[in-house]
Design a protein that fits this description.
Protein name: Transmembrane protein
Largest sheet: 8 strands, mixed
Number of strands: 20
Oligomer: single chain
Number of helices: 12
Helix content: 25-40%
Distance between the termini: 7 Å
Keywords: Membrane, Transmembrane, Transmembrane helix
Radius of gyration: 41 Å
Shape: elongated
Length: 546
């Protein structure tokens, strides 16, 4: 082979038939002209320095970003932005900035990698001494895709420089997606201890029952709010009231009680209908509180307490209510119509305060509760819990406390008013119109699905006195205190800051570190003076040498 010189200002070069894959064509004559403008590309002699400068730019830009990420990981950087800019807008703004940041670094090294790809055709030509159309230039064309590059990477003729560069391209693709996600805008957070209620009322307590009645009436009848608001079907032990803030959000760990009532009708039996009943083989006592027994007449809803509650802890979370009513067979003037429920007949017994025969039906409600650890978020006066599977419980909501809450919190609230079913009982079990016209006749119990929903709702109010952590002592309100435990929490301030993600920062550091090592290795391995990119001048030189 002979060395060729650059084409003259106007030179004609014939292409032979053998160079056109053996096809027989008329040999054309193509006029070739010298470039009208000087190329912006550095000459071969200084190309290594140009490549090193580009790699240096990449290193400086990416290490600068990693340093910023390390700083924001340790100490988030507060942002002094306009109050009109929301958190999503700030996130979008800085994501765009970081995309530009990484684009500068990527563009700096992409030219180096594409230059090596473009020169791979010449390395294949040097190895084989021939040009095969569609193969020799397989990875050097601008239209070559990742499949062509991967096939060449796995072939025997791929150069070490190409293989290093191909791995670099894959890492650059990972960098494009990983980099902008490493640092983002979030609200400032700082760790802090949180005092949260430890539920200790685990036995019958008349003061707690009275306070539960008061809170239930205030919230359900006066439409006011006592303490904290919570999500549906979840009981959350309360944090200390001094944590309430209109600006900051606090997250902490606590056990929470989730529930969903499932009530069912049963036929009760009794030997003494004025005091106790047996429902589904369990003994229950009529809850009287401070009231004296009332005559059993049509139109009563009597809360029941489990038979051994007064002697100790409640053994389960069930609650029960006995409905005293009638039907059209017994009376033409029915107040509480029990025609569609299983009932027991109670004959008249004037000596036992039963002036006329009535029917009795029992409603037993199972809360289907579950106690689990959760992350609780306090925002203003609203508590929201997200349960955590597989985590250790805080143990501030024992099962004994849950049994008391569900079995006793409605004993007084759902009790009688003026010897008739009360307003809260109307809300839960009967048509709402019974609140306005308690003397009307013919009320039927609501469908079980509606009763379940009403029980779910009313329990959120009746349970609040227990969720506060109050250690109530008998009937003495002065001696009551709150029992709290200390847990770890995080305070989220309503101020935006740059914050790094530790897993993303570690992954980015690994990707950048490997990229830098491979780029330097490529510069050591590559023969810069022999790089011939896939352009017309180098193609013509090669064809003339042939």
């Amino acid at each position: 082979m002979r060395e060729s010189t650059s084409p003259t200002n106007s030179e004609c070069f014939p292409l032979s038939s053998s160079q056109l894959n053996g096809s027989r064509y008329r040999e054309p004559t193509v006029p070739i002209h010298a470039p009208r403008k000087a190329s912006h590309r550095p000459p071969v002699e200084t190309m290594r320095y140009a490549f090193l400068i580009r790699i240096g730019i990449f290193i400086v830009v990416e290490l600068g970003f990693i340093s910023l990420g390390a700083i924001t990981l340790i100490n988030p950087i507060p942002l002094h932005l306009s109050p009109a800019i929301s958190l999503p807008e700030a996130k979008g703004l800085f994501t765009f900035i970081f995309i530009i940041w990484h684009a500068i670094a990527v563009l700096a090294v992409k030219d180096v990698l594409f230059h090596i790809f473009s020169a791979e055709w010449m390395e294949k030509y040097r190895k084989t001494g021939s040009i095969v159309l569609g193969e020799t230039d397989g990875v050097s064309r601008i239209t070559s895709g990742i499949v062509d590059q991967l096939q060449h990477f796995c072939s025997r003729v791929a150069t070490p420089t190409f293989r290093l560069s191909f791995i670099c391209v894959l890492l650059v693709m990972a960098l494009d997606g990983l980099g902008p996600s490493t640092i983002t805008v979030n609200l400032l957070e700082r760790p802090r201890g949180v005092s949260v209620a430890n539920l200790t009322v685990t036995s019958n307590n008349s003061l707690a029952i009275g306070r539960a009645n008061f809170i239930t009436r205030v919230e359900r009848l006066q439409k006011a709010t006592v303490g904290f608001l919570t999500q549906n079907n979840t009981l959350i032990p309360w944090p200390s009231f001094d944590l309430i803030s209109t600006e900051n959000v606090i997250r902490y760990q606590s056990d929470v009680i989730s529930y969903n009532f499932d009530c069912s009708w049963n036929q009760p039996t009794t030997n003494d209908p004025m005091t106790s009943w047996t429902i589904d083989n369990q003994d229950w006592d009529i809850y009287r509180g401070a009231n004296s027994p009332v005559p059993l007449t049509d139109g009563l809803i009597l809360p029941m307490e489990q038979g051994r509650v007064s002697a100790g802890n409640s053994s389960n979370p069930l609650s029960a209510f006995v409905f005293i009513g009638s039907n059209s067979t017994l009376s033409q003037n029915v107040t509480l119509n029990l025609e569609d429920t299983p009932t027991s007949f109670i004959p008249s017994n004037p000596g036992n305060n039963i002036t006329s025969p009535v029917l009795a039906s029992a409603l037993v409600c199972q809360p289907r509760l579950n106690i689990a650890p959760a992350t609780v978020t306090l925002s203003g006066v609203f508590l929201r819990a997200s349960t955590l599977s597989g985590r250790t419980r805080v143990k501030n909501a024992p099962m004994a406390a849950a049994n008391i809450i569900f079995s006793e919190s409605l004993l007084l609230a759902a009790n009688l008013e003026s010897n008739r079913f009360g307003t809260i009982a109307c809300t839960i079990f009967l048509d709402p119109s019974c609140q306005e016209n308690n003397e009307s006749n013919g009320f039927k119990p609501l469908p079980l699905g509606t009763i379940n929903q009403q029980m779910n709702t009313i329990t959120r109010s009746s349970a609040k006195v227990y969720l506060s952590g109050s250690t109530l002592n008998g009937s003495d309100p002065v001696s009551s205190q709150t029992n709290m435990i200390r847990v770890n929490g995080v305070e989220e301030r309503q101020k935006m800051a740059l914050v790094a993600s530790e897993p993303f920062l570690i992954a980015l550091s690994v990707v950048v570190g490997v990229l830098i090592a491979l780029l330097i290795a490529s510069m050591v391995v590559v023969r810069i003076d022999q790089l011939r990119t896939f352009d017309l001048e180098n193609i013509i030189r090669t064809l003339k040498m042939d």
